[in-house]
Design goal:
By secondary structure, the chain is of the alpha/beta class. The chain is built from 15 helices and 19 strands. Cytidine-5'-monophosphate (C5P) binds next to helix 13 and strand 16.
Amino acid sequence: MKTLLYKRILLGVSGGIAAYKSADLVRRLRDRGAEVQVVMTRGGGGFVTPLTFQALSGRPVFTELLDHDAEAGMGHIALARWADLIVVAPATANVIARLAHGMADDLLSTLCLAADVPLLLAPAMNQQMWRAVATADNIATLVNRGVEILGPAQGEQACGETGPGRMLEPTDIVQMIENRFRTSLLSGTRILVTAGPTREAIDPVRFISNHSSGRMGFAVATAAMEAGAEVILVSGPVNLEPPDRVRYIPVETAEQMQAQVFNELEHIDIFISAAAVADYRCVKVAANKIKKSGKSISLELEKNPDILAMVSAYRKKPFTVGFAAETEAVHENALIKLKDKRLDMIAANQVGQGLGFNTEDNALEVLWPGGSASLGRLSKDKLARKLIHLVADRFHEKNSNQAH
Ligand code: C5P
């Protein structure tokens, strides 16, 4: 199962014999759909060559902090921003000590310091080194800071001794990474997300559509699923793989999208409208391909249903979240839409200038009656997770107010 689809995992490999197991870890993470970027310490490179990891991850391996080529491409700050999660496996006593003390004297320690994402360490060392008070103190410091320590396991060690200090098996590490992306913020809820563009036919070969890639809606559906919700994703035509464990309903036109949404609406707690629904469709769809004849032609268009507004006006209205793509006055226009469509929340973004449609990154301004939050420029996956947090907060607050 592609349980880690599109997740960006930065794997730090430091110098322990268990580094050979990390090659298998890369393969397993990629099997689950993750993108894996390996960063090795000098010691790590002594056990397994960067070439092995490059072949398995499909990406060049980074090792040096002060590497001109690497800094020009993906420097330590870019790497720290790229990652959704950092896992160091194996994490030697030395790396653990250096991270505990906030050292930044090589690439891995520096980017751990520069990253604001979950950090997971899979210790691997001799049992006496693991039991040493210094190591225990360092581990306690890291745990206190929210670092997650995976294992270590007990058993026979490469040095011939027996005890705690063996690196966990890759399958266990993968599972812990999967768990780290899960929360129970929305467990017990049913969420319907719309995504992608719609396509409105002109004739059998042509259509009206827009630049929506569907990425934001897919990311929102994935984040909602990871937050424990049961998710239905209704999407127009896109080039994306549907996330695992999401019920996927592909559609073409706005009217089809509306029909599918209304099919499910009765049993939905939260509706998130990330689709770029075409506002107009052709009054008449030509039965045959329209011939190139006159100098100009006219198409008569009629309004499509405003699905979001209709959901919001439904007698059993779910918690309703809209999106607003604006080219100017983002905040003001979003506020107007929030009120006019009587939404519970709106996520607005500026399109153009490398943001918005068909881009990797986005920046969202989220508004709700009585509040707002600015989610700065981030990957759509990260934004989606933050948005789902806000949705969960507001949804639970609204429900508890209604219960009283
Ligand atoms: O009013 P505007 O189209 O800009 O509003 C954007 C929001 O409305 C988006 O969430 C979009 O999915 C939704 N929408 C809709 N049906 C339409 C047009 C927009 O659900 N026909």
